[in-house]
UniProtKB/TrEMBL annotation:
UniProt cross-references to InterPro entries, sorted A to Z: FERM_domain, FERM_N, RAC1-GEF, Ubiquitin-like_domsf
Chain ranges of the FERM domain: 40-100
Pfam family, one: FERM_N
Region (Disordered) location: 1-39
Name of the protein described by the UniProt record: FERM, RhoGEF (ARHGEF) and pleckstrin domain protein 1
Organism of provenance: Neovison vison
Signal sequence annotation: none
Length: 100
């Protein structure tokens, strides 16, 4: 009596391994290698209007930057988020996660 019962998480009830990463890769898949080369500093304006700087390889796909932002914010489900930016015509577009 007086003990708090620990309830299993939904994932553990379904047999999923415990994982606090942000990737949803299937078992056995590996993320693409991060290209080496020159690093590029990118400033990200967060929703609370703060700015954070991230350094990513110049030819890295957009997913590398999104993963860095998600790690910084301790987001577990990074697949539900994205980054947007103004293009050369000042139109806001979503960052393509597959393109460098």
């Amino acid at each position: 009596m007086g003990e708090i019962e620990q309830r299993p998480s939904p994932g553990s009830r379904l047999g999923a391994p415990e994982n606090s990463g942000i990737s949803t890769l299937e078992h056995g898949q590996k993320p693409p290698p991060t290209p080496s080369g020159k690093l590029m500093s990118i400033k990200i304006q967060m929703l609370d209007d703060t700015q954070e700087a991230f350094e990513v390889p110049q030819r890295a796909p957009g997913k590398v930057l999104l993963d860095a932002v998600c790690n910084h914010l301790n987001l577990v489900e990074g697949d539900y988020f994205g980054l947007e930016f103004p293009d050369h015509k000042k139109i806001t577009v979503w960052l393509d996660l597959l393109k460098p």
